Amino acid sequence: MLMTALQTKAKKLPEKPAVEQKGFKAFLKKNIYIIIAFFLPFVLMTIGFAIMEVSPFGDKQILVTDLWHQYYPFLVDFQDKLKHGESLFWSWTQGGGVNYFSLMSYYLAGPMNFLCVFIPSQWLREFLMFSVCAKVAFAGCFTAIFLRSVFKKNDFSLVVFGTTFSFCAFFMGYYWNTIWLDTVCITPLVALGIVKLLTEGKFRLLTITLAVSLLSNYYIGLFTCIFVLLIFIAYSIVKWDGFKSFFTKLAKTALFSLLAIGMTAFFLLPAFFALQNTHATSSTFPSTYAINIGSTNDLLGTLEAMKKIFSNLLTFITPATKEADALPNIACGTVSLVLGIVFLTSKKITLKEKIVDGCLVLFMMLSCVIRQLDYIWHGFHFTNMIPYRFSYLISFVIVVMAYRAFMLIDFTTCWDVILAALFSAVIILIAIDTQETYAIVGTAVIAALVCIVLFLYTKRIIPKQVLLIILAVIVVGESGATAYIGVKTTTVTGTFDYPRGEENTASVIEYMDNLEKDTKEMWRAEMTSTQTLNDGSLNGYNGLSMFNSMANEDMTVFFENFGMMGWQSGNRYTYAESSPVTNTFMNLKYLISREGTYKNSYDLTNTYQSGGITLLKNEHYIPMGFMVNSDLLKWQVNKNEDQFNPFDQQNEFFKLATGVNENVYTQLEVVSQGHTDYSQFPVNKLSYGNYSYNCTDTTTTPHLKWNYTAPYSGYVYVYADIDGKDDVSFMINDDSTNTQTLGMGRPYIACGGYVNEGDKISVYAELPQGQAGSAHVYVNMLDQNVYEQGYAQISKDVMTTTELTGSSMKGTINASEDGLFYTSVPYEEGGWTAYVDGREVEITPVGNALIAFNLNKGEHSIELVYYPKGFKPGAVATAVCLAGFVAICVYVYIIKKKKGGTAAEEITPTPPPVKTKKAKTQNINT
After folding, report:
1. Which of 67, 399, 633, 811 is placed for a possible disulfide with 801 were both Cys, Cβ 3.0 to 4.6 Å?
2. Residues with Cβ within 8 Å of residue 212, at least 6 apart in sequence
3. Stretch (H or E) spanning 527
4. What would the pLDDT profile of 113-165 be if each residue is shown by its tens digit?
5. How far apart are CA 232 and CA 356, in angstroms?
6. For residues 119-154, b (16+ Cβ closer than 10 Å) or e, as one string?
7. How far from chain centre, in Å, is Cα 644?
8. How far apart are alpha carbons 372 and 246 in whole angstroms?
9. Computed over its alpha carbons, how large is the radius of gyration of the chain?
């Protein structure tokens, strides 16, 4: 495989004629198989989507899981930014404001995404689908280029084996993870680059492709860097040529890898600093031997896990799509499986090569099993779902091994094939307890067919052309079936009502934007309930909700403490219709109800409607940047959501900010309960709002019910975190027509609506059979008088915004007294800089999350400017490394060439091999 290609000097292509042919026909003749290696997978993948009626072939779309919630909404926003020339440093669209540079580095930097600027917005979903087909196709195309360049072969076999990588299980299971595909499909070119560097001293391809790989997606790019290291180690073992040669090649590999990494520093250094603010960085290295997949953390468990992994080499298996306990996606077709084994049985390949290649595959498989290795591969943390994200490298290595074996097919004996058939049978047999019957039978039948035609060829019963045709038919058939299985397993969704409300929602947002077209300040809008977790990006407004792997954990913690939805390990925080306190301090000016209903009629007024979609204006809106009491800096957050009452947190926040020393919420006590009978389902009160419960009879299907009485007329709010139940019923006077279901999967302060004095208020939850656990249920009423007093205090000194850009804002304010200048802009250390009257001031974030700073009485000019932390030093590093790379290129291609030096790109010339008769035979074998 790779190491074999490195060890031997392959037969060179025929010498060029004296007059080299030029023009399109010559290009086409030379690259016809590379072109086919692109178009064949593209067509097959497109057919797979067409069969599943994906638009434009039907009314379905490929948006599922994170592609639904994240990637597509981010792409919509990205297209809008590109078309309008907006800042790529920061975005106001999601999360109240976010480091867009870091978001791009993980989600949007793939080269193909930049083409969306030329696509009409209404065709963006179709563009996304065809871009997936193109990336699958490029994987095959680039694999074909690798095989042609390394093995010096240019025939239809390039198409056959390139296609096997295109339709490996990784692509078919994770194609919805579009953000990874660019880096995955370019991997063959990076591998070719390191091969060229080690064998010929050529450096350009490695440097450029490794840099592009990292820029496209730094996370998957990490696997590429590790793979380059593994290739170097394997090469050094197979082709040991003394310490001097070893250290020379090590120095060249390190130099050009570091140059590639350095050239991306302007992008990756800010991403690195942003990662320090995320939840994922809190993972720790396992202190004892631990494994994935296997049932026990010992040798037997490891062997059990390896058995399951080998079983996943079968064709037609259902690929893993997002399951955390799934097996690694490593299948790459029956032809690659059988010929990969022929590589190990062939007598024409040395034992050292087989050991090195076999150990390379086994090491990567063991990396899926041993948690310590898994931890290192994934950037020193464990993944959230989608395990073994480097498994595509196993498929690539097997494909190259298979092609190497095919290149030696003329020297393969029937016994080599028989041994390969036996080993293939072993792999199929061990899959009996793990895989579906259809996959086992299908793989067995095709493996038998492949072995038969290989056997017939070794006996020269059939010509090589027939062999290649049969293998091609098998690969095309398998690939088409695999594409269909992949799309069907991943599933599709309907284009209808995505985004929810479609034209009517767009009409409401357009009306809202027209109302504010002359407004300079940064104002926000939100949906009363979410469809995706990035509705602001999807629908085009400045919102609060965000689901983003680069999410700042401090903002998530703030959301949880402030009574909004947050999930620290899930890297998300979300808004749903809440209280006037929340809306005011988060600078929400509008809410959009796609259901046409809303509960907070206290200060939300119906401004516009279209087809049932309602635009609500917040009458207690305060523009971004206003004065509060400096005591607000004393407000503390708690990272453990079980240890605080969000109403208490908002009460404290409100008092410290406004100076009104009264609670803005009135706590309601439980007056009666309607739980399942205590003898079957004891519910015990631990403290106010905190309960524990269990079933004495596990066959019991219990329910919980707490009843309260409204002490006065006004608006009631509820927060419920109940183990075993995400949806909670909120009832007024036990009236089914006055009951609402609240989604409390991630609990938040929800508005229950207006109640009259003496009304019965109930919180009800049906639990699963035998459920035990705990509940945190708090019901409060808004004290409108207290709220109005506080609002009057904080709304009197407000900044007048004079300029707002994608990453800065300017304004003026006249502070009537010393205090704290408060904003709801997310704080990021080293990113935002604040200036008062032209002089930099220290930012003192509220709750470690929101930008604020002390401000003296009087008139002041305010300026906030954002640059991603690490961008400036990263840009310097990029400039230095790029200049170094250019300097080396100038020296090699111009200066050295003029002096009559060696061929272009060779830094240290490799002396030509001594051509002997034996060597010539070996080259032909290659």
Report:
1. 811
2. 111, 186
3. strand 524-527
4. 999 999 999 999 999 999 999 999 999 999 999 999 999 999 999 999 999 99
5. 12
6. beeeebbbbbbbbbbbbbbbbbbbbbbbbbbbbbbb
7. 31
8. 29
9. 32
Residue 648: enclosing H or E segment and its boundaries?
helix 646-658
Angstrom CA distances, 329 to 168, 279, 319, 432, 565, stand at: 8, 27, 6, 18, 34
Helix segments in 152-177, DSSP class H: 157-166, 169-174
Task: For residue 894, count CB atoms less than 10 angstroms from its CB and return exposed for 0-12, middle for 13-18, buried for 19 or more.
Answer: exposed
What three-state secondary structure class fits 625? coil
**pLDDT tens, 318-331?**
999 988 889 999 99
pLDDT tens, position by position, 50-68: 999 999 999 999 999 999 9
What residues are paired with 590 via a beta bridge? 525, 617
Report pLDDT for 282: 53
Which of 252, 138, 268 shows the shortest CA–CA distance to 214?
268
User: Confidence class of residue 401 from pLDDT cuts 50, 70 and 90?
Assistant: very high
3-state secondary structure of 854: strand
Supply 843's token pair.
Answer: 């930012």
pLDDT at 2: 53
Neighbour tally for 19: CB within 10 Å: 6
In the predicted structure, residue 565 carries a pLDDT above the cut 50: yes
Residue 709 has pLDDT above 90, yes or no: yes
Element (H, E) at 775: strand 773-782
Q: For residue 588, name the pLDDT band (cuts at 50, 70, 90).
A: very high
Tell me if 204 sits within 8 A of 907, measured CB to CB: no
**Distance in angstroms (rounded) separating the CA atoms of residues 510 and 100:** 24
Q: What six digits make up the tokens of 210?
A: 């490794």
* 3 state SS of 468: helix
Please give the Cα distance from 630 to 863 (Å, whole number). Answer: 20
Residue with the two structure tokens 């097919």: 409
Q: Which pair of structure tokens corresponds to residue 75? A: 């792409």
pLDDT value, residue 280: 65
pLDDT of 900: 66
- As a whole number of angstroms, the distance between CA 399 and CA 237 comes to 21
Give the mean model confidence (pLDDT) for residues 72-96: 96
Contact 611, 501 (CB under 8 A): yes
By the 10 Å C-beta count (0-12 exposed, 13-18 middle, 19+ buried), 163 is classed as buried
Cβ distance 852 to 843 under 8 Å?
yes
Give dist(CA 171, CA 135) in Å, integer.
9
List for the chain the helix, strand, coil content (%; round to 5): 50, 15, 35
Paired with 593 in beta bridges are 614
**Considering the entire predicted model, what is its pTM?**
0.91
Residue closest to 877 by CA, chosen among 264, 218, 254: 264
Instruction: Answer whether 547's CB lies under 8 Å from 572's CB.
Output: yes
Give the distance, in angstroms, between the CA of residue 712 and the centroid of all CA atoms in the same chain: 49
Q: What pLDDT, on a 0 to 100 scale, did the predictor assign at position 908? A: 47
Residue in 481, 425, 477, 480 with CA at minimum distance from that of residue 451:
425
Omega before 768 cis (within 30°)?
no
pLDDT of residue 393: 97
pLDDT of residue 288: 92
CB 711 within 8 A of CB 691: no
Helix axes 243-263, 265-275, angle to 10 degrees: 80
CB 471 within 8 A of CB 457: no
Q: What mean pLDDT is reported for the chain?
A: 92
Name residues whose C-beta falls within 8 Å of residue 336's C-beta, 6 or more positions apart in sequence. 161, 164, 395, 398, 399, 401, 402
pLDDT, position 25:
86
Give the residue among 486, 574, 510 at the shortest CA–CA distance from 750: 574
Tens of pLDDT, residues 344-390: 999 999 999 999 999 999 999 999 999 999 999 998 888 878 899 99
Write phi, then psi, for 789 (nearest 5 degrees).
Answer: -60, -45
